[in-house]
Amino acid sequence: MKKLVGALAMGAMLSMTAAYSYAADYPERPITVIVPFSAGGPTDTVTRLVAEAMSKDLGQQVLVENVGGAGGTLGAARVAQAEPDGYTLLLHHIGMATSATLYRKLPYDTLNAFEYVGLVTEVPMTIVARKDLEPTDFKALVEYAKANKDSVTVANAGIGAASHLCGMLFMSAIDTPLVTVPYKGTGPAMTDLLGSQVDIMCDQTTNTTKQIQAGTIKAYAVTTPERLEVLPDLPTTKEAGVDGMEVSIWHGLYAPKGTPAEIVDRLSKSLQLALKDENVVARFAELGTAPSPQEDATPPALKEKVESEITRWKPVIEAAGQYAD
């Protein structure tokens, strides 16, 4: 019996030693970050900037792979089912939390299928419209939407996309249901807005700032508590008289459940360094956002964010009744 106990103890020690050695040598090959949306969108832009900066610190290339579809749940499912070795990661936005209510049958358990690495950024949203839409300011836009609710169209990049969530929040805040027009990605939605095929869209500054500055779309408001330096003339929704519209699209980095704690810690520290990278800071500023502070680029901060956002969005989604199977 003593020999058996001793053998088991020795086996456990060897296993722990092997795991430690594995984590200490990490990474030994390129890492892939899954973006659960199409290339060229806001989340893809954020991910590629961060991946490039993390590559410098980790000494291995951090590749980005786009796995779009089903509001980000296909890409998230890919990572949830991946080997928990730190070589397949997920960078997802607020949809990580809202999908828990939006989708009746998720292929993973949102709160228990991932290890949390840290928050990356919180991107402000903008209320924009086709260039030739009649209203001249946000107050007039709300009045126009209410008066023409059966014909005013609100574009989004698909169920679960940031633009879909913000569009629901807009309709909830003005207590008026509008005609929702979903697309297969941000690119097609913006193309039709530029072509005046749809009326309104609520989307991230990472996707709208350049269009606003170029005057190719009409901007009405930002969804932040204060005005943005990059768009100083754009009022906040609260300034414009609408409460309940303050929202930012936060992004977080995840690993599959069971990834060794040492690897998660290594990734979190690398993320924190990446968010201080001069190029990341400068490019984020151009896009109307900023990197998350160091204390937020941590596993506990991201976990708390996901849990609180599931609670926050659940009643909004249930009131809108816009679910996906």
TrEMBL record:
Signal peptide as annotated in the record: 1-23
Domain of life: Bacteria
Keywords of this entry: Receptor, Signal
InterPro entries named in the record: BUG, Bug_dom1
Similarity comment text for this entry: Belongs to the UPF0065 (bug) family.
Protein name as catalogued: Tripartite-type tricarboxylate transporter receptor subunit TctC
